[in-house]
Amino acid sequence: MPVPVEPCCLKLWIASYHRLVQLTSPCLCPSRMATKLVALVLSLWAKVETGVLKPGMVVTFAPANVTTEVKSVEMHHGALSEALPENNVGFNVKNVSVKDVCCALAGLAQQLECQPAVQRDLGSVTTKGMYFGCSLSLALVGSCSKNDPPMEAADFTAQVIVLNHPGQISAGYAPVLDCHTAHIACKFAELKEKIAHRSGKKLEDGSKFLKSGDAAIVDMVPGKPMCVESISD
Predict the structure, then answer these.
(1) DSSP states of 77-90 as a string?
(2) For residue 111, what is the enclosing H or E element?
(3) Cβ–Cβ under 8 Å, residues 219 and 157
């Protein structure tokens, strides 16, 4: 007779397994904000979702497709030897300008260049000096360049559930999606099939429209460069 598993033990096992998957997966760091340093160093704020971020690591930023080296990693004004999943950190990268990293994001580089210079003491053990205006939203995903780095998605297929909408939704509709730190309008290019939102069973091929309560598999095209990963990744 099988031994019953206590709910608390099962929850602990699931949490431990989830943590192991996070640590062993490739490094993934969606960046929220950027600050330009005078000395050709770019400082970014990000949350480590999976993997480990370390100083000296060579990272690639998608969708800008820029590769550079991490100079330092900091959290709460202190230097870190490594950043683990769920850590919100700041990290500095070498020899990269704002225009290099943000070339795929229309208008962002010009906004940052036009900000007046302000003196800001970070209290950091690794970086102090003159900063230019920051607090600009980014849609960049940093990752280790040697371990399956993410890339820009020209289009992607998504499972969509319409919770509440006053009318019908058809091809050409362009809602704003939040993916990582991106906030971008994506167009419904094709409604491939309508499915049952609980079981995922196919109900109809080539549906013409969706309404509240419907679920479907939809081909989507981002209006701006965007980084999207599959569920398996």
Answers:
(1) TEE-S-B-TT-EEE
(2) helix 108-114
(3) yes
Residue pLDDT tens, the chain, 233 long? 454 555 677 777 677 777 777 778 888 888 877 776 555 567 888 889 889 999 999 998 888 788 889 989 999 888 999 999 989 998 888 777 666 655 544 444 444 444 443 333 333 333 333 333 344 456 788 888 888 888 888 999 999 999 988 889 999 999 999 888 888 999 999 999 999 988 888 888 888 889 998 999 999 999 988 888 887 76
- 3-class DSSP state for residue 200? coil
Q: Are 97 and 42 in contact (CB under 8 A)?
A: yes
Q: Which domains does the chain have, with CATH numbers?
A: 7-23+39-106+136-152 (2.40.30.10), 156-222 (2.40.30.10)
Distance CA 187, CA 223 (A): 7
Residue 124 to residues 33, 87, 91: CA-CA distances in angstroms?
Answer: 18, 17, 11
DSSP assignment of 127-182: --EEEE---EEEEEEEEETTS----B-S-EEEEEE----SS-B-TT---EEEETTE
Give 18's contacts (C-beta < 8 A, 6+ positions apart).
Answer: none
